[in-house]
Amino acid sequence: MKRIAVIILSSWLLVACKDVKTDNSQPVATITIADTSPLKLNGNNYQDTDSLALLQLTRKLYHWVEEESKLGDFEPYLTELNDTVYAGMNTDLHQQRLKEIRQTGLFTQSFIDNYNKIALAIDKQIKNRALIWKVGELPPFGNGASPWCDCQDVPDNYADKIWIMQVSFNKDTASYNWSWGDGLVYHIKALKENGIWRIDYMEGFDYNAYIRSFVYTNQIEDSWENDLVRIDIGNETLTLWYHGQCVYFYPIRKIDTQTVEMIWDRDMDCKFDNGTNQAFGLKRIPEKGKPFAKFTLQDNMLHADYYYKEWVQQYAKQVQDDVFTSTYSRMREH
């Protein structure tokens, strides 16, 4: 959770903040920021009109996003109407979207070029089947939230609630955060062109971050699930969620890019006995520090090969079925 601090600024920031009365009844401005770092101003470049312009720009931006924008971002297309997997980006809709963004006058050409670059990368990876986007499912990129605000819900009277903070100027560029409350803090950079501030960068459309969010079909490091449990595979650890209140952490050994071995362990955060310490009268049981299973990515499914098959069978019969299953599907949770 981000720390909240309050910074008292001089009255020039009244345009973006609410007035607060001091003991001598002189108004000062207060601003809530997302951390305890001080607001940085570069020399004497800051102008009252610029702070107001950035605030107005931000409110215009989200009025357009919520009220005027007619098209979506990165819309896909189907080769045939009954196809279950998208074939790529809808080029016609994307060009219309670029035109819509350009006609707002709110964005620099650099922002538009970056937006187009993201779309081209998505289109390329879908067409070569490195990304599989199934109809009716979340896309294999992004974080599930709107990239325009990194949010899923918009509060009532959102425009009136927007304020800017942590403003930093460098000649004709500005870097700042905005919020409408509810714990949301979003980063934007703006560029002044011919005396007009325009959006040059938005954190939700950061190209490198977007590329990192791609979930490739040959990527075993992801979240997987069956009807009961969830498995998160990382670079060094496999996390098995037996239950919302019972999580075990297992080391892994990478065999290749699509195969890992799960090493048995008792490192856990569990509030009940999940039965994994039982022997079931067997001589051969899982041992701490020894490989327990091999997981292999094949056809976008996680396939499990258990080294203690008899113990797994007894666990299913006597403790809980559908924990150690033969396959797990990719989980698209954000």
Short overview:
The protein is α+β, with helices and mostly antiparallel strands. It has helices at 48-68, 91-103, 109-127, 158-161, 207-212, 309-318, and strands at 5-9, 19-21, 27-33, 76-77, 88-89, 163-170, 173-181, 184-193, 196-202, 223-225, 230-233, 237-243, 246-256, 259-263, 267-270, 291-298, 301-306, 327-330.
- Determine Rg (CA atoms, Å): 26 Å
Uncertain regions spanning at least 5 consecutive residues: 1-46
> Helix coverage percent of residues?
10-25%
Please tally the β strands and state the result.
18
Query: Structural class per helix/strand content?
Result: alpha+beta
Average of pLDDT? 86
Our estimate of the beta-strand percent is: 25-35%
Order the strands across the largest sheet as they lie in space: 10-11-12-13-14-16-17-18
Tell me the series of helices and strands, N- to C-terminal.
EEEHEEHHHEEEEHEEEEEEEEHE
Structure notes:
- This protein has 334 residues and is an alpha+beta fold.
- 22% of the residues lie in helices and 31% in strands.
- The protein has six helices and 18 strands.
- It has helices at residues 48-68, 91-103, 109-127, 158-161, 207-212, 309-318, and strands spanning 5-9, 19-21, 27-33, 76-77, 88-89, 163-170, 173-181, 184-193, 196-202, 223-225, 230-233, 237-243, 246-256, 259-263, 267-270, 291-298, 301-306, 327-330.
- The strands form four sheets. An eight-stranded antiparallel β-barrel has the order 10-11-12-13-14-16-17-18. Strands 6-7-8-9 form a four-stranded antiparallel beta sheet.
- Helix 2 runs antiparallel to helix 3 (109-127).
- It is elongated, with a radius of gyration of 26 Å.
- Residues 1-46 have low confidence and may be disordered.
